[in-house]
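The protein record minuted underneath.
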Amino acid sequence: MPATDFTLTSIDGTPLPLKDFAGRPILLVNVASACGFTPQYAGLQELHEKWGSKGLVVLGVPSNDFGAQEPGGEGEIKRFCETRFGVSFPMTAKQAVIGGNAHPLYRWIVEQLGEGAAPKWNFHKYLIGRDGELLDAWPSRVAPTSKEIVGAVEAALAGR
């Protein structure tokens, strides 16, 4: 089962089937507005602007699972992201990303990569390949514009 078999809900409340992104690499990131890593939104937006037209999908998944650092509702989250960081990449409705209540996509990630692959904090990143399979994962401290992530994104876009 590929990641593209899952559907999330967009931050605007409409269905967001990942099959709409089939054939495109997806950088999936659980995000929060009141976290020390929140400035990473700028790097995520930079990736979106640089490689979105070449096929990369940056997908932000707001979550309140870590330190209650995403307490607001979807409208508040959307306004914060757009006004503070100019976010124009797709965002989902707030989701649980760990534990028994985690969205099925995040439970699938743990099934694929093991319990240690679950997010440990906000801004944990997963790269999903064009075929919907997991390619790599990075913890919060690895910036979106790091050599590791940029190299992996470039390889995924090139089909490697």
